[in-house]
Design a protein that fits this description.
Elements: E1 14-20, E2 28-35, E3 38-43, E4 47-51, E5 56-57, E6 66-69, E7 75-78, H1 89-102, H2 105-136, H3 140-157, E8 160-161, H4 166-183, E9 190-195, E10 203-206, E11 210-214, H5 215-220, H6 224-239, H7 242-261, H8 270-302, H9 307-320, H10 334-342
């Protein structure tokens, strides 16, 4: 006599479950079994059967009871290891393997560490790479408009008209044009003059190719080569599209940090603000070193000693007396940049 293979290979084909009729919250014990392609539910208050295709078993979650939905609207809470037969055993094997991983601590911890590592790698390496690609493909007209709007805003809140004589401005503009020609002959970079006692000795680059030079920096410099060195550094920011990359990077990084720490609406909390600040500081330091490298190359081409840049930064640092640790500063220390200039 030949016996057909058992279509139900699991040991849990007959289990004790809790039956809920869907109308009241009370549950009653029943026996659930599979036979002849039907799911049989038998107890004191119910005795029925349904085609296996008409019932649905929720995925397993650890050792928690599983919900078995019946066509009548009733449900059965069955043990975690209860399974329904499938046409092929491969999906069942895969599901059992996943379930076994879910109830073990080691795979869960490894998965969490892997996720955090991938997230951190995305922020530190993926976001800057993506920001560079997007910034390089941005419409130049849009970028110029952004720069003009930014300058207009700064003029209204922090900047004043320059008090430098016209002859002095023309001389510095000619020096700036010489630096631009050495860096990017086809670039339409412009130099703007402003003053700002509140900001102090400074120069900064805006999107679209504008460098703003403050009177306070001109007055502080001991040699025009120092001013030229600072301008070469700012041209480095322009060439590498740092302003747009900075905006893109910090925006994405802030969202990712908020997603990890908690609700995006709470991103201003200290828990989200501190990591975002550290990330923003790292990006800025990387940009400064990158702009330094471009600036040093420009100075070499026009025959200006790199030491002028280092001396100016050292003097500014000594006057400022900053006690902010290097890893928290958005700008590298002068001694770090001096070593980079020597290399």
């Amino acid at each position: 006599m030949t016996h057909s293979p058992d279509p139900w290979p699991y040991k849990t084909s007959r289990v004790t479950a809790t039956y809920h009729d869907g109308r009241t919250s009370a549950g009653t014990p029943v026996r659930v079994r599979v036979a002849d392609g039907l799911l049989h539910v038998e107890g004191e208050v119910v005795a029925t059967a349904f085609p296996l295709a008409a019932v649905q078993l929720e995925p397993r979650l650890g050792d928690l009871p599983r919900r078995l939905d019946l066509p009548s609207g009733a449900i059965c809470l069955v043990p975690a290891d209860f399974e329904l037969p499938t046409p092929a055993d491969a999906p069942a094997r895969m599901e059992r393997w996943v379930n076994e991983l879910e109830v073990r601590w080691t795979p869960a911890i490894l998965a969490a560490v892997t996720l955090l590592a991938l997230l951190w790698g995305g922020i530190v390496y993926g976001v800057p790479a993506a920001a560079r690609i997007v910034a390089e493909r941005m419409n130049p007209a849009v970028e110029r408009q952004m720069g003009l709007q930014a300058l207009a805003t700064l003029d209204g809140i922090a900047l004043n008209e320059s008090a430098l004589p016209e002859a002095r401005r023309q001389a510095l503009t000619a020096r700036f044009a010489q630096l631009v020609a050495a860096a990017a002959p086809d670039a339409a970079y412009t130099l703007q003059f402003r003053s700002s006692p509140a900001i102090g000795p400074n120069a900064f680059a805006l999107p679209g190719g504008t460098v703003v030079l403050l009177d306070e920096l001109v007055a502080t410099a001991e040699h025009d080569d120092e001013i030229a060195a600072v301008l070469a550094h700012e041209i480095g920011h322009l060439r590498e599209r740092h302003t747009m990359r900075h905006v893109l990077q910090t925006s994405v990084a802030g969202v990712l940090v908020a997603a990890v720490v908690g609700d995006v609406l709470s991103a201003s909390s200290y828990a989200a603000a501190l990591p975002a600040f550290l990330l923003e500081a790292r990006y800025s330091r990387a940009f400064e070193f990158e702009a330094d490298r471009v600036g040093f190359a420009i100075l070499d081409r026009v025959g200006i000693d790199r030491a002028h840049f280092v001396r100016f930064l050292t003097r500014m640092e000594e006057k400022g007396g900053s006690s902010v640790p290097g890893f928290l500063s958005t700008h590298p220390r002068a001694d770090e940049r001096s070593r980079a200039a020597e290399r």
